[in-house]
Amino acid sequence: MYTQNGTIVIEGRKGTGPIQKKSVAPAPRKPRAPVVRKTVKPTVKPKPKPKVVTSTKKPIVKKRVRTSSSAPATSLSDKLVEMLPTAGIAYSPSFSPLIQVPVYFWSDIPLLVTKNIEIVGEIVEVRLKPTFLWHFGDGVIFLTKKSGGPFPDGEVRHSYSRAGHYVIQLITSWDGEFTVQGVTSRIPGKIESVSALPISVVAAPSRFSPPVLFKR
After folding, report:
1. Confidence class for position 98, pLDDT limits 50, 70, 90
2. Whole-model pTM above 0.85?
3. Whole-angstrom Cα distance, residue 89 to residue 171?
4. Which of 41, 107, 114, 168 falls between 20 and 30 A from 162, CA-CA?
5. So what's the pLDDT on residue 47?
6. Where is composition skewed (Low complexity) in this entry (predicted)?
7. 103: which residues sit within 8 A by CB, 6+ positions away?
8. Per CATH, which fold does 70-201 belong to?
9. How many CB atoms lie within 10 A of CB 191?
10. Higher pLDDT pick, 205 / 57
């Protein structure tokens, strides 16, 4: 046995014959499995989205602060509108007044209204007096400080010259003064109320009667 050209040669002899050389093929090598290298992808971190911060601010409400001079007047005016009575209208004769005959008018409004009201913790004494402006519906007006009355003592009276339907309007204007902590002041401005009432005036019928003779 020997090697020749990288090959192991084994010789075997039988008898005296020539030596036969046998060549032994090298054992095949097992193929190696290919090494697969994994490519590691780089991890991409997502970029953080910017946070949008919205700040909700409440609107600033500025309250109007009334001064001491204007606050009582405005509050007092509101109180006066609530406390004042509404004027009612009446007339006499109440059924079918005649033309050329005086009709007496009056209102149920008192000639003096006194009341204590509370404004911002203060007691305010109020004194009011009315003024009456009568519109009789035929273009005639009458201004007075008296409320009128029925027959025969009423000061507000009017005679219509034509028969028809009229609307009486009474405008009542209030003015006066108020007292706070012993200090008295005039009430600024005037408060007015309007009342209305329809009236129908008729003509007196004419009657003819035979003459009456007196004998002695």
Report:
1. very high
2. no
3. 11
4. 107
5. 60
6. 21-37
7. 91, 92, 93, 97, 157, 158, 159, 160, 199, 201
8. Immunoglobulin-like (2.60.40)
9. 16
10. 205
